[in-house]
Amino acid sequence: MRIGAFLLPEPLPELNEPYAFACLRPWVDVNNVGTLVLDELEAQFDAMDLGELARPVTSLISPVPSNPPH
User: How far is CA 27 from CA 2, 5, 14, 42, 47, in A?
Assistant: First the structure.
């Protein structure tokens, strides 16, 4: 099922008071601190992926022109 920019698998699981964490990749993950925290939260809350972007963007930053106009 597609909702906006996201793809969700069907059938959707039954959710009871859900929480959501979202992250953009690639991200700055110095010494894997962010990954370790997300892994621990996933384990503590028995978390699972619910969906993903239908069409991931490879770069959110526009390239800078090599010869900008004066």
Answer: 25, 20, 30, 18, 21
